[in-house]
What does this fold into?
Amino acid sequence: MKSDRTATEPPYWDEACRILTDRDPTIGHLIETHRSDVLRGSGDAFQTLLNAIVGQQISVAAAAGIWQRLRTAFPRLTPASIVAADAAQLRSIGLSYRKVEYVHGVARAFIDGAVDAAAWASMDDDSVRDELIALRGIGPWTAEMVLIFHLQRPDVLPLGDIGLVNAAARLYGWTDGSPKERLLRHAERWRPWRTVATWYIWRDLDAEPVVY
It folds into this structure.
């Protein structure tokens, strides 16, 4: 399958698409349908993490609106600019009280060195996940968004993503048992490219590719 994507795609993407198409015709169909699209991130660790916090437990559309207002309010979206922002300003953008606490805490962690994003490239997935989950307000799903969209790790399966689980159940016609458990078992055939299969299921859900 010839790719017409740009050189910024993850280096494993085309190989993963070929293998997944051979192993799983359902995923292969999604790949063919969305063949011009590819996983992309912001390129900024702090912004990816902030965007994932914004997206916690709300719809993609609601998260996109809040994120756009945040970017408008803070053209230079950095840890320093978020630490300097007061709670009322962040609340007016649409963040909940809890999320205001979370983004302030994450921004301070970047500033004081509790989070060292530059070191993540040399760390395995579990170590990055553990470092992030140690921060208040960061759970497995949020950490996995960083692994997928910022670090572009190839084999992440975010089972805490209800949209993914429900979409997989519809795609494969699972009507009995736990859809999360069925997805976990089914995704064994996607290894070591579970990120890619996950991304194409997400891509099929939304009018535009989601970016964190």
